[in-house]
Amino acid sequence: MKTNLQKSVFNGLLVGLTAGIFSASTYASDEVINASFHPYNDEIPGYEGLSVGMTIDQSNVAQFKEIIDPAFLTFIENGWTSMNVGETTSFDLHPAYVEATRDSLGEVTLGEQVGEIIGWKAGRPFPQSPDPDDARAGEKLAWNYKYGYNWGDSAAIYPFYWKYRDMDSGKVERTIKFNFHFLNYKGRVIQEPTPAITPNPSDLFRAIYVQVLDPADVRNTQLLIHRAADDLKRDNSWLYLGFQRRVRRLATGQVTDAFLGSDLMIEDFEGYNGRISDMNWTYKSTRYMLMPFYNHNEMNLDTETHQDDDGYQVIAFNGQGGCFPDITWQLRKVYEVESVPVDDSHPLSKRVHYMDAQTFTIPRTVSYDRKGSMWKTFTIGQAHPDLHLPKNKGTGVSIDDSFSMIDVQASHCTTGQFKGQVDPELSRPQMFNVQHMRATGS
Amino acid sequence: MQTTIKGLRFWCYTLAGSASLALLPMTNTLAADDTRVNGYVENATYGREGVGLSKFRNTLQMEMEKSAGSVGFFNNVRFNATLRGSYDGVYDLNDDEYGRNAGGPVQLQDVGSGYVPHGGGIAPTPFLGFDTTRNPNEGMVVLGEHLHGQDNGVAFGVPVRPCDEDDRGCIDGYLDKDTNELRFQEFNDRADFVRELYADFDINFDNGNILSTRLGKQQVIWGRTDLFRVLDVINPVDYSRNNIYDELEDIRIPMWILRTDYRMGPTEVFDGLAFDDLNFQVVWNFDKFRPHDIGQCGQPNVILDAGCFFRGMNNLWENGGTVANFAGATPDGGLATDFGPGQIGIREAHMPSWSLANTQLGMKLEGVYGDLGFSLNALTYRSQLPSLRGGIPAQNGFTGQTGVWPSLIAFDIHFPRVNLVGGSVDYYSQGIDTVFRVETAYTSGEEFANTLRDKLYSESDVLRYVIGADKNIAIPFLNEDNSFLFSGQIFGEHILDHEREQRTYGEAGIPNYEHNWTATLLVQGFYMNGRLTPKIITAHDFRAQATAIAPSVDWLVNDNFKLTLGGNFKVGDGAREFDDCRSCNPWDPFTQTPGVINHLPGESAGLSGYEPLGRFQSGPIGMAQKEDEIQLTARYSF
Hints:
- The structure holds 2 protein chains of 2 kinds.
- By secondary structure, chain A is of the alpha+beta class.
- Chain A has a domain of 296 residues: outer membrane lipoprotein receptor (LolB), chain A (Clam), CATH 2.50.20.10.
- Chain A is built from 5 helices and 22 strands.
- In chain A, the strands form 4 sheets. Chain A has a 16-stranded mixed β-sheet that branches.
- The longest helix of chain A has 36 residues.
- The N and C termini of chain A lie far apart (88 Å).
- Chain B is mainly β.
- Chain B has a domain of 171 residues.
- Chain B has 7 helices and 33 strands.
- In chain B, a hairpin with a 5-residue loop joins strand 8 and strand 9.
- Chains A and B meet through strand 6, strand 10 and helix 5 of A and strand 10, strand 11, strand 21, strand 22 and strand 23 of B.
């Protein structure tokens, strides 16, 4: 009896302890997930003097310099643009992505080399808050971006207007109309097939396919980028030149050149479009900053650039040279991360990324040339999916909706106006191979 | 036995008409997403040293596309039409070089008299000599005169006016354009103003594979290299537009073709062998045969000057004529000789008629394996370059007897059947950040001039290849923002059954080099956000020692308007000599060559001159040595 009693007590304690540990563990897990994906559930950030509906311009910007990145601060100080402040809103990512993160919480680690990751299957690999004492914290944030829910499992910007502008005169020198398509081969959480597309002989993680629709001299130029799951392997890229009707493989050097004469290089796409291992990443700080997050349907829209049967219109641009999206900005939690190219011949000395902590998009990036001078500044406006196209509602994708890449040295910019569509039919796997480029080229 | 389908043209035009009708509604729905209408107008004005205006071409091109989506069994149905019309004013504005007033009387070298006029050569038998009222000394140039002197070699007069002005030397069905066909290049009996007209349609299979078909008048492009046509041989090319220097896109001659691709995408063939992309293509060129347009004598661009040689030779056959330095020729020259009709020259061109046997069929397996892109190609086609076959019946100028004479320079033009196998790969080398492209083809059935053979030609297998490398290189002192594209290529050609022998006065055999290489280098920069793109293309033929340098600048004034200023300059040796078969002794013993011991009938003694075979040694760059140009093109797209 005594023995049984002891056994029962022991068993009881064991169960209780296990349950306690499990409960504590579950609680810790929930805390990490909530902090990572729902940072505004408990508290909306604020800043002294900042209020929704106000405009930050030349007259009052000094008061807010702590919550504006240095490039944009200069633009406002110069009177080139202003910021309309909107309400901070939660951009909830899709629950399936959040669940995938929860499922692999604690199972993902970095390998020895930059660019190696172990244990990731889907979701955000490192949802924990970055630790300033962790020398590889910046790298983990970069992985969170790379494996983010940026465009979901697949999406298309269909169409996508780029305008090359002289910032001094405001003259639009060139308008290029594209279609962009994105497809994740791995880490898929919503669109079938999940979690991966097979067969996948080259073990790709992602592919991007771009087609130029206008103007005539570049029509039917197509770009295909295959990004391997192994980050240490270089991208394979191909370019189809409409005037030659040939597919040409691209050297990596060509992804750090101006893409079709714009102010963007291929590596700039989406904030950063390269390998983790091409950069040395440094986590600088966690900040609250004004970031370009807004509700598309409530913005001033451009009535001329795009018309369609959906009645959809793209974001308007204004300010100096028409280089600034006419949008509202929210005070949001941001990770400031610096990336320095490993390759000494890279045209940049570094980028400073301002990653949105909730969505892990990169809505602001400032780039510096090889001499260390500020060169370009990249803004990607993020639209809430529920106040955009009806088909985007409920997708849990923070919609890239407008961009502005300003070359501050050349006083020139390229602006982008999107019709982002989270629609798997627009980005079928058959589109992401070389033969599709040949078949599509006329 | 060939089966002729006489109604082919009817069916082609029926298809063209059907597609046009399908496209017609788009004129009312230009703004719809499923339709597109674009086009451009362009003026290209070129000036040539010593000649003046060499091109004043005005072009209107319209491109129309309509997507019909899914139609019954087919997916992704699209119709596409490209119409092009042009007027080249050079034939009116510079008509004393290229039009109705071109040419004039000619003088031909004679060892006795120095020079004699056309019609002033010797005619020692009743069978030699010709009627100068049928073949007068007017409207002619001396063959090759723009490039070289007669220099004790072969020369004869070549009519240069359009064929409606002067039909001498115009070869029926091959090089016989009248003034309007020269002025309005696309408006001819092959309806070239319909540049492309095709329908695309897919069949999607449950396994994700796609059978993708394009049917109609189209260009089919194989290979991975620029400028050189190693695998890209399905469509013939119009070299009369701008020699070898225009983008192939603009000078390929579209053909009625069925192209079907079975697109398998990522494919695991068996465990351990998987392709990222795999595609099998069948190409059936069912159009009536067309050769390259090599340019008619009297046009500004006549590649290798071959069109002038052919026209002069056809005139010799049809009407007789004077040939410089012929009778009793030695390296010190000979007597200008008047031949009668039907004795030497080109009799006719055998243009392959439409028949199932004359259609052309190709297959290609193409894919991506790891970091390697590859293709394997096979094609059976008709040579788009002419082959001159001797051995035709001709009159002996000394006896009057008609027969087949060994090594007589009397020819018919043929376009032999050629079989090609080849392949290509591209590979990106991370270590040196450079893309390599390799393309190779092995052909059998090609024919070459050969003065060692009785019929003056022989067949040879040929190996061709191009190795190319592309690299972007930053040159900060020239451009801080954008690197320069360097693209280099080496083209090799190896005639595997090459024949050459040393004879009394020089080498005889195949004039082409047994092994030859040509290198190209493109350097292109980008300024003003890609709106100003200077580039320089150079090409060097190693054996011909001939170099072309083509600098140009494109300026995109805005999205619609582009100006291109360029030049094309040649340096090098220019004309080259080779056995010209004056010493071939066809009419033995009358044509034995002085100084040759035991000169056998039909055996060349290797007497050489610039014409006619030296052109194969000079190559297209060397033969255009004197055709330096300044070029200005303005294009407005809409």
